[in-house]
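Give me structure tokens for this 373-residue protein.
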Amino acid sequence: MAGANERQSIIVRTSFIGIAVNVILAATKAFVGIFSNSIAIVLDALNNLSDALSSIITIIGTKLSLKPATKKHPFGNGRTEYLSALIISMIILYAGITSFAESVKKIITPETPVYSRTSLALIIFAVFVKIALGLYVKSSGKKVNSSSLLASGQDALMDSIVSASTVVAAFVFLLTGFAVEAYLGVLISLLIIKSGIELIKETVSEILGERIDGSLSRNIKETVKSVDSEIKGAYDLILNDYGPERLMGSVHIEVPSTWSALKIDSVTRKIRDTVFEKHNIILSAVGIYSINTENAEAAKIRENAKAIAEEFPEILQLHGFFADIENKKIRFDVVVSFSSSDMNNVIKRYKERLENSYPDFDILVQLDHDISD
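Here you go.
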């Protein structure tokens, strides 16, 4: 996993390469487009300039994301990268809308293009350059988990399709005498608009907060349980995303009710250290569920509670179960699926079934959500 400085270096270097390549391509295409009277090629040149702007925004966003934490923003500025990706997505959408409008104008008032072998050779070369740039930027984005680079790389690959279509339009005109580039421009513009909308949706989803990746969630919980053999389970894992590679959260563990405060303190500290070492994730809190493992009657009630839960398809899990036999109290959490139309009603009906089986007990059933696998 790349460190913060190495990650920044890769993003900035990749972005500078993108700026240089896009500026050169934009100048070349603008020259060809003007002299060949091709609206499609001119629009393609403008699109390259918007890509250069996207790379500049990526650099600025990366720099801002590394600003140190302050009293006002104690978790740092890592989410700035998501805002950068959102701005880039909006630029892509704007470029698509602008291209669509210009293409429609050229359909209404067409102009005859004039192509030369040199201009066609330059545009064909630009297609391969753009494909190579897009693959390189996306590869770098995956390597350092950068939404901005991934968005820029996807945009570059879309641009290669735009450039390729201008070549197709040119050959169609040379072979048939029919200028199709304006119509092709409309189709390409719609593809760009679609790409921009999809990227906006993805970025907004990241800003809102997405479900933890299932494999990561399971690996973290296994790490937590591996710290001490007496840990019966790890639950309620919550991770808050404060930017790429900046995750902070909490987890609950089930431990025997016989554990002393000294042991709990020692184990929870070790859990935080181990999770950070293995996953680079900060656990700000490790909560405790105590289970009375030495009481046979409590264990029997627990198994019966699980059996009753199987009657409710929406119930995914029980945890934190504790039955106080002496004082006639039962407490635990129930994880209900998001597919349930009424989670509170599920808990109510389940609790009623349990109360029928144990009328003498005061039963507390806490609703829990299916936050992580």
